[in-house]
Amino acid sequence: MKIPIDIKTGSLTQMSPLSQDLVVGIDLGTTNSLIAVADNEGKPQIIRDYKGKTMVPSIIHFFEDNSYIVGIEAKHQMGSDPKATLYSIKRLMGKSFQDMKEIQNTFGYTFLENYEDEGLVRVNVNNKFYTPVELSSFILKALVIQAEAALDRKISRAVITVPAYFNDAQRQATRDAGKLAGLDVLRIVNEPTAASLAYGLGLDRNMEETIAVYDLGGGTFDISILRIENGIFEVLSTKGDTFLGGDDFDLAIAEKWKNTYRNELQLLPLEKWYELKWIAEEAKIHLSQNTVFTRLWNGLTLSLSKIEAEELFQPLIFKTIELSAAALRDAGIAITEISNVVMVGGSTRIPAVKNAVSQYFQAKVHDDVNPDEVVALGAAVQADILAGNRKDLLLLDVTPLSLGIETLGGLMDVIVPRNTKVPARIGRNYTTSKDGQKNLAITVYQGERDLVKHNRKLGAFILSNLPPMPAGLPKIEVVFALDADGILTVKARELRSETSMEVVIKSAYGISDEEMAMLLLDSIHNAKNDMEEKQRIEALNEGKLLIDSIQKFISLNSTLMTTEELNGLTERKKNLELLVETGNKDSIMGLIQEINEYAQPFTHRAMDSVLGAALSGKKVD
Ligand code: AMP
Fold first, then answer.
1. Cα→Cα distances 168→157, 171, 398, 417, 615, Å
2. Which residues line ligand 1 (CB under 6 A)?
3. Are the C-beta atoms of 223 and 214 separated by less than 8 Å?
């Protein structure tokens, strides 16, 4: 089932009956986000908002009553209420507070450590806290609502793009954001892969080539080297600079004018300097198509020729070429092996950038698709393939549901995420939760819910005869190997003692389409409750762990503490024991935080602090 869309307005030219096979592609960007869908000819189209705009600024503004708006209206609040206007949320996805605290001052709003969630960042607005996953889900929801209005159809399935360098945590966070927005995320696709698909690269399964995707946006630069074989994209290497983009080109122009008019400009108030940067951006864009720019501004003539601009841009462009060379080196690829270069990002419209890229790579440079839209368009192509609308195209075999094991408190720890390409082999390390633990139960589940009790149990085995070691010391590697027929082999091995055990689970796919649909729908409907329950269990686990750690700490280090400190810590431990019984997440996390702060001076004193060691690493029952 395909839907006819008016390309200019993005609206339906004719109502089509509801069908199940509509899947949208979403470019969830740092600055702007876009949503696209393939039309009835399989051609991807950006879905416009009611004003005809294609790009939705990835900005959320919160009002005092905690209601919020997303997009251009939110952006307009940036000047008047910066603390409640959130941008660049993508930079926070899957990041811990420790990762981000150094650059906190580059954000206009505040974020804190989320003690409830492995030290991840959470954002504070009007005394309410939001995780980057929740905030991204607000942006996704806004895009979906916009698309539903334009298409007059319900949207429940999507492909979402992420940078190629995103790690597992960042990808999982993006997937969770989709789920919270009520979407079934069929696949997370790398942005460079999507951009290539928009040009049709990789759609011919006989094609075998190595390509470069050069992405120069407003604030960041990324270069990816991809190998395409049999319709499979493999990222060979990525390099980039998170602080190199169009903004730097604007600054270079503004700096030049500042130098020219140093004396005159000194008298101007600070806001005027910002104006200068905006005019610099205008000049830059103008010079992409013209040879001179002139503007009268506060009695000064701001002028710049294309040649002058290119001189200013040269060092910045050179940096991108140097990074491209480094990416090729990392990939172990000679430049002559690159057959195609795909251009992404608004700044690739600069002729000097295009020339430099084409001279350096000496390959076909694809730049005729709008570089702001190319990623979303490619995501829509991938979405159309996954929707089953392009029978001519190879649809890679993927795992239909996530596979994982049960961890402490009955939580599902996903090892092979759903839609992973098969065959696949993924391993993860675990440890024990009790001193001298001899056996470790590995129970394998399939499904999308956060608690194993809601998922489907595939099998279980016990890794026995572990040599006695303190909790947290054994290194147990659990490897899931899934072959093309869906046969899953689970191997567990204690690395220090070489104890190992293996089971084969007949078919991870032995499930009907209806059952699978039910499981997926359940996971979407229960996303919020599941996440809350997961956080409660994680708080309980952390509380119990801390109680054990305090006990050990006291028995090993009591001589290092004053009586007062000893009593203080014992008292807090008792309180924590009580709280763990009553099971209130917020109070437990509050007390854990307090104890950590209270215990800091002693832990510093005790060189071989067991507290620190016992608190790190995941535990399996
Ligand atoms: P993106 O982050 O991909 O949306 O790219 C935004 C950047 O592209 C901004 O720095 C814009 O100033 C820049 N840009 C957009 N259009 C042009 C143009 N025609 N010439 C030069 N730069 C442009």
1. 21, 5, 17, 10, 22
2. 31-32, 217-218, 246-247, 281, 284-285, 288, 345-347, 349-350, 372
3. yes
Averaged over 88-102, what is the pLDDT?
A: 88
Burial of 522 (0-12, 13-18, 19+ CB in 10 A): middle
Please indicate whether the domains covering 201-368 and 529-615 agree at the CATH topology level.
Answer: no
For residue 66, report the distance from its CA to the centre of ligand 1, in Å: 33
Q: Is CATH 3.30.420.40 the classification given to domain 24-196?
A: yes
Q: What are the residue boundaries of the structural domains of the chain, listed by start? A: 24-196, 201-368, 403-518, 529-615
Phi-psi region of 460 (alpha: psi -120 to 50; beta: other; left: phi over 0): beta
Q: What is the pLDDT of residues 423-449, one digit of tens each?
A: 788 999 998 888 889 888 899 998 888
Catalytic residue among 39, 75, 90, 585: 90
Q: What would the pLDDT profile of 130-170 be if each residue is shown by its tens digit?
A: 999 999 999 999 999 999 999 999 999 999 999 988 877 78
CATH topology of domain 403-518: Substrate Binding Domain Of DNAk; Chain A, domain 1 (2.60.34)
**For residue 288, is pLDDT > 50?**
yes
Cα 369 to ligand 1 centre (Å): 14
Q: Per-residue pLDDT tens for 373-428?
A: 999 999 999 999 888 887 666 545 567 678 999 998 899 999 998 877 777 889 99
**Which CATH architecture group holds 201-368?**
2-Layer Sandwich (3.30)
pLDDT of residue 19: 43
Range 529-615 classified under CATH 3.90.180.10: no
Residue 11 CB coordination number (10 Å): 16
Query: SS3 of 326, please?
Result: helix
Q: Return d(Cα 559, Cα 590) in angstroms, integer.
A: 28
The ligand 1 atom at the shortest distance from the C-alpha of residue 281 is 12
How far apart are alpha carbons 200 and 203 in whole angstroms?
6
According to the model, what pLDDT value does residue 456 have?
Answer: 85
